[in-house]
Amino acid sequence: xxxxxxxxxxxxxxxxxxxxxxxxxxxxxxxxxxxxxxxxxxxxxxxxxxxxxxxxxxxxxxxxxxxxxxxxxxxxxxxxxxxxxxxxxxxxxxxxxxxxxxxxxxxxxxxxxxxxxxxxxxxxxxxxxxxxxxxxxxxxxxxxxxxxxxxxxx
Length: 154
Hints:
The protein is mostly helical.
């Protein structure tokens, strides 16, 4: 699958260079911790903060993703260069999906629709945990499925 055949606009090389998969997994670990805290505390403001983190990556580009910046500045200098890199477009798509769920969770908690907050946050948490624990990016898999469906229709 090429970067340009996915469900979102093609990644721009100046905004979305290939990613170190260890950074993506690091971001998933931090996201897992944040979303767990949201579920424990019921904090709509923390859910909104996580939605903002997703939004920066999804809409501004992966180089602006706050957890990615932390990885590049604090962790990556202590590691060997990555053996391989992965395209940014599927990860950026997964950040968009995460944004939708985190924003829905924030709206739920902040508006008193606590069940919406819990369910939306729990869905985002499951996806983040799968990536953090097993390296399985659910949003990236969705990206691939949508890309294949578009190719089959064309």
